[in-house]
């Protein structure tokens, strides 16, 4: 077989197009978000509880208040970030504080 006939066979062969390799399903992060909510959040809450309890046992109440308060702020942020309706509600509430009513 000559080089010319091999080249002619390659040119006339049916080559699959690139769209055959494209992904047909939609990519989303709902599985990752659900896993984080189910596993990581619980672990963080347990660690925060341990720190607060250990600080309380040692009598270091300023650390307990600081860690507890910052933890509540962080968990509130996590709750707002995982629920799109919560972010809209909080935005409307903040606007309501300065007298702007959103319908």
UniProtKB/TrEMBL annotation:
Keyword Membrane found: yes
Record organism: Rhodococcus artemisiae
Keywords for the protein's UniProt record, in alphabetical order: Membrane, Transmembrane, Transmembrane helix
Protein name: Transmembrane protein
Superkingdom per UniProt: Bacteria
Transmembrane segments: 40-57, 64-82
